[in-house]
Specification:
This protein is about 30% helix and about 10% strand. The chain has about 750 residues and is α+β, with helices and mostly antiparallel strands.
């Protein structure tokens, strides 16, 4: 969504953006006014969020209530290849300092296994290195050479770890990990004069070592206290393998895909799911289950989150944004990530997008409309699910969102070499026009899944239907992409007549992490050489004013967050919100806005990446099972039907045989977390009530916002899905942000 301009060969601004991302060393930041915002609207009854809705469940007892799978991975940087799966380990030795052991004591109950030093080709940590401290937090993968590099030294004041304390020593050093040589020293600087930050409950100091650009493996040392951070790299390629793992998550999420050992790794082998009798190849209409005449082939697509359901509107968003990620920085993506299509001459990110696109073509009716949802049975592993698949009726929102994805796909695939992809692009363009025409003639066809009033209870989990504002956002996106594809004036006329209803304009230069999808589409329109000049200028000015305002760039460069990644509000899925905020800043670079501030935009965006990579109160990488891919303290478990609680094979890293695959981004801190209302004693059977008190829920409950997390996957009635469940929407936002810093 941030960078379609770069995808168009006609747009000079896109070319400029590509050069900026290829050459810049990730040192920028920016922001727009959102201080008065109350938060965006999710895919349920609201404006579409970046990448579509989260698909997370809002409650219930079924094991399939919300969620999403994970990704295996290619070898770690500097490590040996593992057949394109998670077998490759860092070339460096494992940390002799206990790795995640000390981190495990943090308030979130999180902590890695300390399995790998994460220093890759630069070698391991010296055997006599000091112990790791959970109070010296860094990006555990590392930093680009020219990027900002700040270690946060945390001193807990409020929350579950309030009894702990850490007073930094007077001098800190950046230390070469393998030799112990100090290459840079400086005194730490107090954040905000030593004040406590209410969002984290911590006081903090900063150790800024941005001046160090020499590639290598390092750690940060408190010289006086003789404790250190986790090891990390400084390297141009520091995030390359991380991006591979993050993208592979979509492979594990594929419905109906064989997961053999050569592609999935031995730990996550599974037969194709949902291909049995009355499943995806012969799914029936939810309201007419006994009628064989309603059978449709709706095979393919992805499990949406921790549940296995497939939501058309959201899938269209995932497809569109995988394509955007490629367009924004094509050089970040290879053809060797270990999926079945690897080596076919097409970047794997486009192969993955095509997997989702193919599913969308199967969901299109002959009149151009799109079926809204496929409800899938849950089981672990997925291939053991045997209940029938059911689909929902067509609706306007699914049709419009898919029209946009079809048109975007036509633009991208037409530029690829293979003739069959050019033919595929032609077909997608025709499908896009047909879908738009149906939606234009049927502007308010609504279908609510899992809704008792609609007779659809049990069909899916999250609510895919939206409201009038959401349908307008979808239609604007579709009109933009079709105008870019066809040049047809009627699409331009719709954008010109409707853009002022977008939040960007109607809320007064409102650039928000909640509106990334529509913001991107409008900027893509503004970049088009045949856009109405006055409208294009108005859109570009609105975005520039918003992204540089006090709630966006102003807040980040004003250092309002000691962990450097400011958010006004923490909600369900806050990790996606962090990634979306970063994408707001990179959008300014992609579209050539305020080019004199490009370095600041990139510095701001990379701060949100560092947060997700460990610069947070838990010193936790919010990606799963990354111990063999550069992180020492990453997510061990998360809510997912496949990788379920108490599963002997997949429950938890270091406890189960395998744990979940690498690379899944979890939802993140959520101050609204609570156990089910039936707890502690009203959940029916005694064994259900026992779950309520089997483990502490504080944290995440009753904590400062940034500490409202726990590394757990317990099902109902503790409802971990509102914290640890992944989602394809979360994942694609992170992939788009990460890919900007892969050189």
């Amino acid at each position: 969504m941030l960078g379609a301009a770069r995808r168009s060969l006609r747009l000079a601004r896109g070319t400029l953006a590509t050069l900026v991302f290829a050459l810049a060393a990730a040192c920028g930041s920016s922001s727009g006014d959102d201080d008065d915002a109350t938060g965006g609207e999710s895919g349920s009854g609201g404006t579409v969020a970046v990448g579509g809705g989260s698909g997370s469940a809002t409650g219930g007892t079924s094991s399939g209530a919300g969620g999403q799978p994970t990704t295996g991975g290619a070898s770690a940087l500097g490590g040996t290849a593992g057949a394109g799966v998670g077998a490759g380990t860092s070339a460096g030795a494992t940390s002799g300092a206990g790795g995640g052991a000390t981190g495990g004591a943090n308030a979130g109950g999180a902590g890695g296994t300390g399995a790998a030093s994460g220093t890759g080709a630069f070698g391991g940590v010296a055997s006599d290195a000091p112990d790791v401290s959970p109070y010296i937090v860094v990006d555990q993968f590392g930093y680009t050479p020219g990027g900002e590099k700040i270690a946060v030294l945390r001193d807990p004041q409020t929350g579950a770890d309030a009894d702990a304390s850490f007073e930094p020593g007077a001098s800190y050093a950046l230390v070469e990990a393998s030799t112990g040589a100090q290459v840079f020293t400086a005194a730490p600087t107090a954040w905000n004069g030593g004040a406590e930050d209410p969002s984290s409950g911590d006081r903090a100091d900063w150790f800024d070592f941005s001046s160090v650009t020499e590639p290598g493996a390092y750690y940060v040392l408190d010289i006086e206290r003789n404790v250190r951070s986790y090891a990390f790299e400084i390297s141009d390629g520091v995030y390359a393998d991380v991006l591979v793992q993050a993208l592979r998550m979509f492979f594990y999420q594929r419905v109906g895909q064989t997961k053999d050992a050569s592609h999935a790794g031995v730990g996550w082998v599974d037969a194709p799911s949902h291909v049995g009798p009355l499943q995806d190849h012969a799914a029936r209409l939810y309201s007419d289950k006994s009628n064989a005449a309603t059978e449709r082939d709706v095979w393919g697509g992805w499990y949406d989150a921790g549940d296995y359901n497939k939501y058309t509107s959201w899938t269209a968003g995932y497809v569109e944004n995988l394509l955007r990620a490629y367009v924004e920085n094509p050089g970040a993506f290879g053809d060797d990530s270990g999926i079945p299509e690897s080596g076919n001459g097409v970047p794997d990110v486009l192969d993955e997008a095509k997997w989702g696109m193919d599913f969308l073509t199967r969901m299109q009716e002959s009149d151009g409309s799109l079926l809204s949802i496929v409800g899938e049975a849950g089981a672990s592993p997925p291939s053991s699910a045997t209940a029938p698949s059911l689909y929902g009726s067509p609706n306007t929102s699914a049709t419009l969102s898919t029209a946009a994805a079809f048109a975007y796909g036509a633009l991208v695939f037409s530029k690829q070499g293979p003739v069959e992809l050019k033919d595929y692009a032609t077909d997608l363009g025709q499908r896009a026009e047909k879908a738009y025409a149906w939606a234009d003639a049927n502007p308010a066809v609504v279908f609510k899944n899992n809704d008792s009033a609609s007779g659809s209870s049990g069909l899916g989990a999250g609510q895919q239907e939206t409201d009038d504002a959401g349908r307008l956002a979808y239609k604007l996106d579709a009109a933009v992409q079709l105008f870019r594809l066809t040049g047809e004036p009627s699409y331009r006329s719709f954008v010109d007549a409707s853009y002022q209803q977008s939040h960007l304009v109607s809320f007064g230069n409102y650039v928000s992490e909640w509106d990334v999808a529509l913001q991107d589409a409008l900027l893509e329109y503004a970049d088009h050489p045949d856009a109405t000049p006055a409208v294009a200028a108005a859109l570009r000015d609105a975005y520039t004013q918003g992204v540089t305002g006090s709630g966006n760039l102003g807040a980040v460069l004003g250092d309002q967050d000691p962990y450097l990644a400011y958010l006004k509000d923490y909600t369900w899925g806050s990790n996606q919100t962090k990634a979306a905020k970063g994408n707001c800043f990179t959008a300014a670079v992609v579209h050539g806005l305020a080019s004199d501030q490009s370095a600041d935009f990139l510095r701001a965006a990379e701060r949100y990446l560092h947060y997700l990579h460990g610069v947070n109160p838990f010193s936790l990488v919010y990606l799963s099972n990354m111990n063999e891919h550069g992180a020492e303290n990453s997510v061990n478990e998360f809510y997912h039907t496949w990788f379920a609680d108490k599963s002997p094979a997949w429950d938890r890293v270091g406890v189960s045989t395998y744990g979940p695959p690498p690379g899944y981004l979890v939802g993140g801190p959520n101050p609204s977390y609570d156990w089910d209302a039936c707890c502690p004693g009203g959940c029916g059977a005694a064994e259900n009530n026992a779950v309520c008190t089997a483990e502490s829920i504080s944290p995440p409950k009753g904590q400062p916002p940034q500490k409202s997390y726990k590394d757990f996957n317990t099902n109902w009635p503790l409802d971990s899905w509102s914290i640890s469940e992944p989602s394809d929407g979360y994942q694609i936002g992170y992939i788009r942000l990460l890919s900007k810093f892969v050189h």
